[in-house]
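TA notes, week 10

Several of you asked for a full example with nothing omitted. So below is the full record: structure tokens for the whole chain, then the designed sequence directly under it. When grading your own attempts, check the secondary structure regions first.
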């Protein structure tokens, strides 16, 4: 039925005086109104007379015949597919690249193999960082500026807030095909690297302020010269560490994708393997450099040091002509580069959204890590906490690595099989039963079991290596080992369950878990790890003291 007939019927239904036919247009009369010839007047037809001619039988006959031919064609396609299964068809072979188990089909064994090696490598890096921290805590700058110890967890935690988040975003982009095209890959990489430079610069400036505030609340003192030293050391450490680790993450994700390995399983542990060591090394070097050139008086100089000796003025102060302005210039210079990174990051629309709304998780995670740094600052110099500096990077790093892997995997799973704001039917509960998180056959539950299974063996290996290298600096009692393993297990269990909850909540709010969950979880991992580790040392010391008192008390009694 064409448009003209429709207008005719509509006019008849409305009771209009005249209804136009499909012929030529009527001519206007001299009086003004339109006149329609008698021959062109059409009486209205009742609506639906043509549609009523179709019966159920005619509709059935019209549908059944095409349906039967379509069924025969589908059956033939199924027979061909069954015949050519596993063979080449016209020069191409079919392989499964996506399944409910992830981008590549994974079993518990393959998942364990892919995670174990990067986790052990990251453990070696964290052990090296712990030994380095045990050494630098006795350097003059760390002895005088105690707030540097408070600054260590937030800066080291940047690998969780920035680099692990970057690795998770890149892994999700690679697994969902966003980096297959070279031009699109270049845009994704450049915008993400520019984003973490912006975040590192801002967080590197805010972290010392939080450390100084916590230090001032606990001691009631605030030194402006120390403020400049902390800010300069923190900003340049965050800037250089973010650049180095960001480039490393890009290479790992691209290489893993080409080798057919899931980047979610290896990118975040390898980021941690060098993250702690690089961050601590940069912080120790530049803080010592600024300390030797500060205007607070002569600084001790060691002939074997790689840094130049201080220059004394006529008053005996260790300051050169530029030392007064050195630390402010470093902060201003690095902050001045921020607009450049913003312009580069704005070329990618999803990154623009992170630039606008992604600051709260990073800053809150920094504050949470700062409380862990305060615990470290108050315990590291006491005798009953001897060895705290060595174990802190390990327990915090293991928990952060494992929960980052799980968060990245769940995020990739949701990006592949759902849309932001809509949870799958089997993930509708915001607060799932802990048994469903660890004890079901679902792929995310299986990966949680694998990660939890790796906690005890991993920590035992790290403990063994530490006792071989620096056994005289750490407790050697079985009680401490038992409590330490229990603390690591409790920490990872809590973090894995919270990862499941937080990913569901953020996805329901149409937020990307890669950007909003990992900072919270790694910051909480630092706080839980430091607190539980301090509790292990305290309990071990109290039990050893009680045992020693029980031995000495009978000996001091009457014969």
């Amino acid at each position: 039925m064409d448009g003209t007939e429709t207008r005719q019927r509509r006019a008849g239904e409305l009771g209009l005086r005249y209804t136009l036919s499909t012929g030529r247009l009527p001519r206007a009369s001299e009086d003004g109104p339109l006149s329609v010839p008698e021959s062109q007047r059409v009486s209205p037809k009742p609506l639906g007379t043509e549609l009523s001619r179709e019966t159920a039988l005619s509709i059935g006959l019209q549908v059944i015949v095409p349906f039967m031919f379509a069924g025969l064609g589908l059956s033939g396609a199924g027979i061909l597919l069954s015949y050519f299964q596993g063979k080449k068809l016209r020069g191409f072979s079919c392989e499964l690249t996506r399944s409910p188990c992830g981008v590549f089909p994974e079993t518990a064994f393959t998942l364990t193999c892919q995670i174990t090696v990067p986790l052990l490598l990251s453990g070696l890096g964290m052990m090296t960082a712990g030994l380095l921290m045990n050494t630098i805590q006795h350097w003059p700058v760390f002895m005088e500026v105690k707030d540097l110890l408070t600054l260590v967890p937030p800066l080291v935690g940047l690998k969780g807030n920035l680099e692990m988040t970057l690795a998770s975003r890149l892994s999700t982009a690679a697994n969902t095909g966003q980096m297959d095209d070279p031009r699109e890959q270049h845009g994704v990489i450049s915008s993400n690297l520019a984003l973490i430079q912006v975040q590192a610069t801002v967080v590197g400036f805010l972290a010392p302020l939080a450390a100084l505030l916590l230090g001032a609340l606990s001691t009631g003192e605030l030194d402006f010269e120390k403020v400049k030293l902390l800010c300069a050391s923190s900003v340049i450490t965050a800037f250089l560490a973010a650049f180095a680790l960001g480039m490393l993450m890009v290479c790992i994700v691209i290489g893993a994708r080409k080798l057919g390995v899931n980047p979610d399983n290896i990118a975040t542990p390898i980021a941690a393997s060098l993250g702690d060591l690089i961050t601590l090394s940069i912080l120790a070097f530049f803080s010592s450099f600024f300390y030797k050139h500060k205007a607070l008086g002569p600084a001790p100089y060691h002939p074997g040091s790689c840094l130049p000796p201080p220059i004394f003025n006529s008053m005996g102060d260790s300051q050169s002509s530029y030392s007064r302005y050195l630390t402010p210039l470093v902060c201003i210079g690095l902050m001045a580069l921020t607009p450049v990174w913003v312009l580069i990051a704005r070329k990618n629309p999803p990154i623009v959204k992170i630039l606008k709304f992604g600051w709260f998780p990073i800053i809150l995670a920094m504050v949470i890590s700062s409380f862990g740094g305060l615990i470290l600052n108050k315990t590291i110099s006491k005798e009953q906490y001897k060895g705290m500096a060595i174990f802190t990077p390990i327990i915090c790093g293991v928990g952060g690595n494992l929960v980052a892997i799980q968060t990245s995997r769940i995020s990739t799973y949701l990006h592949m099989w759902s849309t932001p704001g809509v949870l799958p039917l089997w993930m509708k509960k915001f607060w799932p039963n802990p048994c469903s998180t660890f004890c079901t056959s679902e792929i995310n539950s299986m990966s949680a079991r694998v990660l939890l299974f790796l906690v005890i063996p991993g920590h035992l290996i790290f403990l063994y290596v530490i006792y071989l290298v620096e056994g005289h600096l750490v407790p050697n009692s079985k009680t401490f080992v038992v409590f330490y393993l229990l603390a690591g297990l409790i920490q990872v269990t809590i973090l894995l369950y919270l990862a499941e909850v937080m990913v569901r909540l953020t996805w329901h709010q149409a937020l990307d878990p890669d950007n909003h969950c990992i900072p919270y979880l790694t910051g909480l991992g630092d706080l839980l790890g430091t607190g539980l580790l301090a509790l292990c040392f305290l309990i071990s010391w109290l039990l050893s003291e009680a045992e020693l008192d029980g031995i000495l008390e009978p000996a001091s009694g009457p014969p």
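The chain has a mean pLDDT of 75. Use that as a sanity check on your answer.
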